[in-house]
Amino acid sequence: MPFIKGQSYEWEEIISDPERVAGPVFYLLHRRDTELVTAACLDIAFNFRAPYEIWAGEGPEVKRWADILDAQVDSFDAFVRELDNRHYYRGRFRRIGSTRDANEIALRLAQAEERGPIYKILFLEEVAP
Q1: Residue 13 falls within a domain, yes or no?
Q2: For 68-77, which contacts have Cβ atoms below 8 Å and span 24 or more sequence positions?
Q3: For the whole prediction, is pTM greater than 0.70?
């Protein structure tokens, strides 16, 4: 399904491709039977800089998938769930860097009072359609 930038989509539409599966980290969809991330579905309530940053939390699977995406060179679809609870397609993005710097992480945590710890920040850029 070709997505239209700026349009909102239901979760069922985002995962409608039978080759695109969620989990174990629900917000990173990947190609079935691979570790290739095909979409990031970020929540603006917990990540104010989405889709240009992914604030990966703690936990073994979250850390593992953050590291997988950090090593990925392929681009992926980015959706952001806005405050109206709709997922908006923001385009195709790719990872351009990351940090585990404590000062950078503290800056993000100061912006988001209700979120848990951050393991790593992934920096993204939009790629041409």
Answers
A1: yes
A2: 68/35, 68/37, 69/28, 69/37, 69/40, 69/95, 69/122, 70/95, 70/98, 70/120, 70/122, 72/36, 72/37, 74/36, 74/37, 75/127, 76/37, 76/38, 76/39, 76/40, 77/3, 77/38, 77/39, 77/40
A3: yes
Torsion region of 18: left, alpha or beta (phi above 0 gives left; psi -120 to 50 gives alpha): alpha
CA–CA gap between residue 75 and residue 44 (Å, rounded): 20
Name, in order, each residue with C-beta under 8 angstroms of 126's C-beta and a sequence gap of 6 or more.
51, 90, 91, 92, 93
- The tokens for 14 are 């985002």
Q: How many domains does the chain have?
A: 1
8 A C-beta contact, residue 123 and residue 64: no
The boundaries of the domain holding residue 24 are 8-126
For residue 2, tell me if it sits in a domain.
no
Residue 92 lies in a domain: yes
pLDDT digits (tens, 9 = 90+) for 55-102: 999 989 999 999 999 999 999 999 999 999 999 999 999 999 999 999
